[in-house]
Design brief:
This protein is of the alpha+beta class and 241 residues long. Helix content is 29%, strand content 34%. It is built from 4 helices and 13 strands. The strands form 3 sheets. It has a 6-stranded antiparallel barrel. A 5-stranded antiparallel sheet has the order 12-9-10-11-13. Strand 2 and strand 3 form a beta hairpin.
């Protein structure tokens, strides 16, 4: 009887240890999985959201999407991308040549553009500014094909004069992008015919302009014209006051 009782006790002890070990292992695995998922979620969610864009048509018919930047995340990036549309590409290009066209893609992680990825996503096309009375026209797929310019806005940046980055869009076309710095500032894009100033490796060039009154769009446009010999194709002040 003593031997049988001892055997039963050993079996029960082994079963108990097995259950304790299994539960602990499961807890560790579950905790690790949750932590990893939470980490991934935090990484992807910082720039996850609604990212409106303006469309511009270059002098040589390159269609460019301009992410509408703000000072705060998840919008604190100046990003320009070559794009096309699965449907109505010619209609959209013609609209962009004749007035302000904005798009509102489905929510996505802006990191995909920051990292210069190529992908497609559903987007609504607006005649006018989508947040300022623009009219929703139709929905189609936008294809983000190639990054043209990517820069994070740094609030502490401050320049004594107005800075523009000039970059290639195509062999014949360059785009001057105002470098947004601390408040008050402005967002401006200027199409330029290839001046040959960017060097053999197509690196981004710098251009300094003298813009004194940055609270008046007419004065800004005039100063940009004096500096770059062409009026801006896009100019936004209100979001940077």
């Amino acid at each position: 009887m003593i031997k049988i009782a001892s055997s039963i006790a050993l079996i029960l002890f082994a079963v108990l240890m097995f259950l304790i070990f299994s539960n602990n292992s499961g807890t560790i695995q579950a905790s690790g999985t949750t932590s990893h998922a939470s980490h991934d979620s935090q990484q992807s969610s910082k720039y996850m959201g609604s990212h409106g864009m303006a469309l511009l048509l270059s002098p040589f018919d390159d269609l460019i999407a301009h992410h509408l930047p703000l000072y705060r995340a998840p919008h604190d990036y100046q990003i320009l991308y070559k794009v096309s549309f699965t449907e109505n590409n010619d209609i959209i290009s013609e609209m962009a040549a004749n007035g302000l066209v904005t798009i509102l893609p489905d929510n996505f992680d802006l990191k995909r553009l920051i990292d210069k990825n190529s992908f497609s996503i559903n987007a609504t096309i607006y005649d006018g500014h989508f947040e300022r009375g623009g009219k929703a026209l139709f929905t189609t797929n936008i294809n983000f094909e190639k990054a043209v310019y990517v820069r994070q806005i740094i609030l502490n940046d401050s320049y004594s004069e107005t800075q523009f980055d000039i970059t290639y869009v195509s062999k014949d076309t360059q785009l001057a992008i105002h470098v947004i710095d601390k408040k008050p500032s402005f967002d401006a894009l200027v199409w330029m015919i290839n001046t040959g100033d960017l060097g053999p490796n197509n690196e981004t060039a710098k251009k300094t302009c003298n813009v004194n009154n940055i609270n008046d769009d007419v004065m800004i446009s005039s100063a940009i014209y004096e500096c770059l010999s062409i009026m801006p194709s896009y100019l936004e002040l209100d979001d940077f006051k």
